Structure formats: structure tokens, C-alpha cells
Amino acid sequence: MNIEGDQVLEEICSYALHSKDFSVSAIENAYLCFWDALACLLHGVKSEECRWRMTPLFDSPGSCVIPGTLLKADPLNASYAISCAVRWLDYNDAWLAQEWGHPSDNLGGILACTQYMERTTGEKISGLKILEWMIKAHEIQGILSLKNSLNRFGLDHVVFVRVASAAIATSILGGGEKEVMSALSNSFVDGAPLRIYRHAPATGWRKSWAAADAVRRAVWLAFMAIKGEMAYPNVLSLPQWGFSDALLRGAPIVMDRPLSQFVMENVLFKPFPAEYHSQSAIEAALELREEVLPKLEKIRRIEIHTQLPAIRIIHKQGPLHNPADRDHCLEYIVAIALLYGKVTQDLYEDEVARDPRIDALRKKMVTIEDKAYTSDYYDPEKMAVPNAIQVFFEDGTATIKKEILYPLGHPKRRNEFQKVLLQKIENSLDHLFSEERKKQILDLYLSKEKFFSKSSSELASLFVPDI
């Protein structure tokens, strides 16, 4: 399969509207993804910076519950708030290809729209149905990301978040082919934001709410479509004024595989709150730490061998200005793993960043692209995310070159990650829920059949803090 241009819209439209028989493995991964995203959300709402960007929206309470908070909002603002908190700590799932992204960013639109539909129609939307919507949103965003690099034009991946959320939100709201085409085409007409907020020297907080902004816009376009707003079905191909000519210098939007469940079956989870290309480097650093820590003052050089995307996204030298900058710096992340024996969100804060040992280690780091790593990264049969670290000392000795090809959240290590996920969920519940509520939540996680039968509103309400 190899389609491009406006036919892409037709394929997405058809996929969003028609029922699919998803595999057991896709449903299982969607289940893990839902709980992983909710854990990320609960961690996120504890951040003052995250709450600061959520609460100004809610002068007029609405009907959609925002998990992890006592807030309610209309579907647009609820979709923004939910996705903002899910994404805040760079802790939710990832998808790596020609374009990079985080498909669970779409969850805000799904939870907000399903709650809205339950309230307005009286019909229950089950937890299982939510997982099916998640599979579809993941698939649309992820398949678009396989062959279409927005980043090489300086544009941000949240375009594909907006596209996926627009299609799925419209379908949830009861739209048909005409309405989905309207929301889809208008999501491309919106154009694309710049990636400036993801890269030094301008890395900033917007990288944590950009996807949420895209989801909110998608939900707005979905409601407009339901009301009858017109479509622009030639938005991708129109000469001069279309998306490809105006933004991609004529490069077409293409899809080279059918929309099914490929993305959810292969999505990447994060054991550490850090940009995904660093995850295997963290594991390597932690394994070397016991040998390296007693000899910190005698380190001559630290070599980080990595893939090209990590070089492009998170290789940074010089000052780092805020936590949003630090969690996207490969060298900073490796330094705190070596020094503290862990990578947690609090280690990006200013108090920790003032530790002089961090920058002293960063200055000794040499980050090198390994061509074989880059090749394995782009190989669809491998989808590796490799890193290796070797530390050299002044006396001429060195550690082994510790290599990790597949990080803990990779599909090849899914069983290992499930143990980490349980701990991630348990930690996220602290300071928000009573012991009794924690038990209820964990019991539900351990009972998929019970989860499948819960309604969207019941699930959202379970995560309203009770302390």
C-alpha cells in the first residue's frame, strides 16, 4: 500500500468510522496505555507549573470530570486539561519514526467527548470502547508519522495529534463521513506550529502543552463539523495553497501501510520521565554507576554513542534554563542517572540543577552518532532505540562500553515493563487518594473485565481526589 495526497484523508475517514476487530494483544496494550497515561496525568497534576496552565481555563465549570483534580469543564477545556497533565512530565508513551510523537496525547479528547456523549445521550460508553478509540487514535497519528517528517521542515508533530483527535472526536460525537472529512480537512487547514519550543536555546514549557492545545482545537473542529461546517477535501494536494506545497515544499503526505492496530501493538512506554531517545542511555548509566561513582573526580571522558534522532533532539551543550530544557538534554539525563542512581521529575528542578557535579560531568561528555544505531532505529523490523555509554578515567582504565539496544518500555521487553507500570501507578496515587481509594483503583487495574464494563464517566470519577 502506498497512498498519498487527498486519498489519505479518505483512508483516515473510513478507518475512524468503521468498526474493527482488534487483536487481543492490541487491546492488552491499549489497557496498559490507558493506565500508563492516567499515571502520567496524576503525576503531572502535582506539578505547580502544570496546574498553573490548567486552572485559568475553568471560570465556568462544565460537566466533564478532569481526573486527578476537583475540576470540571466543557469538553474543549476538559480535553485540553486532561492531555496537558498526561503530557506534562514527558512520561507518557512514545512513537518514533520519521516523525516523533506521543499517541496517548489524544486521550484528553477521547475522555472528554465520551463523557459529554454519556451526559447528553444517556448511553453508556464502556471502558472497552475507550480502548478501541485509543487504538484508532494511536494508529492514525502513528502511521502518519512513519513516512512524513514534519521536523525536517521545522514543524511540530502535534499536527498529527490534531488530525487523529479530530477524526476520532467527530466519530465519538456521532458524525458520519461528511462530518469526519470536515474536521479532518480543517485540521490540516490549520497548518503547523513551529518546533522552536523543543530545541535549544529556546526550549520551554510550551512543549508540555502543545499537544493539549492541538487536542482542544481538534475537539472544537469536531463540534463545528457536527454543526455542518464545510470540508476542504483537497487540502493536502492543492497547488500553492495546499498543505504540501505551503508547508512541506511540495513533499506529499503519504501512508505506506493500511490503518489497523500496528501502532498500539508496537507503542513504546517510558519507565523514566525523560525524552524517549534517552531511555536506554539511562539504563546504561545506572548499570555503570556503582563502578563510576567512587571515581567521579578521576573521570577523563564519558562517551555516549547514540542514534541520529537523539543527536537532533536532545544533544545539548551550554546552559539549561528550566526543567523543560533539562528533560530534553541527553547529557544532563545521563549525569543525574550516574550521580543520583535514578531519574525522577524532581531532579530537573533548579535546586538539583545547581549541583556543580552535573555540569562538570556534562563538560566531559562526548556524544557520538553510531551509524548502525541510526540504521536499527529506522528499520521497521527492529525499531531499536539504542544507546551505549563508556567512561574513561585519568589512569588509562575504562568501564565496559555498556550498550542497551531496546529500552525497558520497548515491545520486546513488554513483560518487564508491566512490573514497572504497577509501581508507576502506585506512586502516582500518593498525595491524591485515601488508602481505601488507592485500593479501589489498584483492584480495578488488576481486573480488566471490570474495567471493560465501566462507563467513561465512572472511570473519570474514580480518579477524583478524595484527600
TrEMBL record:
Pathway: Organic acid metabolism; propanoate degradation
Catalytic activity: (2S,3S)-2-methylcitrate = 2-methyl-cis-aconitate + H2O
Keyword Lyase: yes
Keywords: Lyase
Annotated GO biological process: propionate metabolic process, methylcitrate cycle
MmgE/PrpD N-terminal domain span: 17-252
Enzyme class: lyase
An MF annotation (GO) of this entry: 2 iron, 2 sulfur cluster binding
Domain MmgE/PrpD C-terminal: 272-444
InterPro entries the record matches: 2Me_IsoCit_deHydtase_PrpD, MmgE/PrpD_sf, MmgE/PrpD_sf_1, MmgE/PrpD_sf_2, MmgE_PrpD, MmgE_PrpD_C, MmgE_PrpD_N
Any single Pfam family the record assigns to this protein: MmgE_PrpD_C
EC number: 4.2.1.79
Family the entry assigns: Belongs to the PrpD family.
Name of the featured protein: 2-methylcitrate dehydratase
UniProt organism field: Methylacidiphilum kamchatkense Kam1
